[in-house]
What we know:
By secondary structure, this protein is an alpha/beta fold. The protein has one domain: Rossmann fold, CATH 3.40.50. Helices cover 45% and strands 11% of the residues. The chain is built from eight helices and five strands. Strands 3-2-1-4-5 form a five-stranded parallel beta sheet, sandwiched between helices. Strand 1 (5-9), helix 1 (14-26) and strand 2 form a beta-alpha-beta unit. The longest helix is centred in the C-terminal third of the chain and has 20 residues, at 199-218. It starts with a strand and ends with a helix. The structure holds zinc ion. The site of zinc ion has 10 residues, from helix 8. Zinc ion binds next to helix 8.
Amino acid sequence: xxxxxxxxxxxxxxxxxxxxxxxxxxxxxxxxxxxxxxxxxxxxxxxxxxxxxxxxxxxxxxxxxxxxxxxxxxxxxxxxxxxxxxxxxxxxxxxxxxxxxxxxxxxxxxxxxxxxxxxxxxxxxxxxxxxxxxxxxxxxxxxxxxxxxxxxxxxxxxxxxxxxxxxxxxxxxxxxxxxxxxxxxxxxxxxxxxxxxxxxxxxxxxxxxxxxxxxxxxxx
Length: 220
Ligand code: ZN
C-alpha cells in the first residue's frame, strides 16, 4: 500500500499515535485529522499538534463542538465525574463519537484523495463502547462506501490487541520511547506516564508493566 494515501484519526494519545507510526510505515502518504470537541484539556489538541509537527505529518483540526452540545459527558464537562457503575458504560462515553469522527474523517479523506482511514479503536480491553467494536467499524465501512460511492477501507490495527500488545506494537515500530514520553492518555491532562490515578492512566500503566515484564523475560 506504499502507493496509497491514508488519513489517521488522531488525538495524540497512545493508541492513535501507535496507529500513526503504523500508517507511516504502511502507506506512501499520511495525514491526520484531530477533532476539537471542547475536551476538558486543550492540552490534548496541543499535544496532538506537537506530535504531528515532530513527525512531519499534515494535521487538520476539525471543530466538533456540536458533540458537546448534543451529549455532555465527563470528557468535556468538569462537573461530570469520571466513573463507571457496574454493568453500565462509563461517564466518559459519548454517544456516536466514533461514528461522527470516522464519517467526518471520511469526507475529509475523499476530498484529499485518500481512501484509507485508520482509527485506534479497540474491542479488547476498553470499556465496551459500542462504536469501538469490529462489527460497527465493518458496518460503517459499507455505509461510507455507499454514501459517497468511494472505496474507503477502514483499518483498525489495534482492534484485537490488549494494552500490553499495543506497547509491543509501538516497540516493534521503533516508537516505544517516543510514545511513552510524548503521548497524552491521562484524563487529568498529564503527558507521558500521566497522573497515575485516573482510569486511563491505570489501564495504560498496567499494560506497560505487563509488556515490560514480558520483554524482560524474553531477553532472559
Ligand atoms: Zn491520569
